[in-house]
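Lecture notes, unit on protein representations.

Consider one protein chain, 252 amino acids long.
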Amino acid sequence: MSKSRIYTAALIVIGDEILSGRTQDKNIAQVAKWLNVQGIRLGEVRVIADDMDAIAEAVNILRARNDYLFTTGGIGPTHDDITVDAISKALGVDVVIHPTARAILEKYYADKGGINEGRLRMARVPDGAELIENRMSGAPGIKIDNLFLMAGVPHITAGMLDALTGTLEGGAPLLSETLGAWAPESEIADVLIAAEKAHEGCQIGSYPFFRNGTVGANFVVRSTDPDELATCTAALKTGLEAAGYEVTDGGI
């Protein structure tokens, strides 16, 4: 593990139901938080319809410019679960039945009506792939090269992430502290700029809100260096208080 190197990842969320608004995605947040703990930055997210060419194109673009690429959705038992086919197309390999995945599914469904054509689809993988353990519902996730194919159901995705914990190379985790103030951004922009410039290893995000007729904002300071983070946060708090605003540790 290199603490100075920044490792990046991208995420493709696959499914017509997400784009139609029928289903609200919950995987982006949990994947982002998990990656951060692994020392990997989530740099971009794409939501793609159940379209094989669109998925394959996005996969080849994102896997080339990131250390890791994750996908969620589209690896189930139905005809519109085409992620495996699309990624096999992107990689230029065949789709095969993974023998271990088949054995897992046969055992899981032994008292649930047995294996059938639909259930067997969940044993299909790009040729050369390995499996990601799924303790929740039997059907495993898939990893091949720097690609990780996971379920779309959030609690199943969470289990697959847990199975991957500690297995990926990453850098130092990105740490954060939050301060809140009932302050218009336009009146304290110079304070934010000064604090960030004085602490090169930190970034400050400003997230305004309007509540009960009053304008405020939360300020998130981020750094991989805990000492630099503490110093920058203290400097920002001092600057906001000097500008006449009461500061709430942890945000409002």
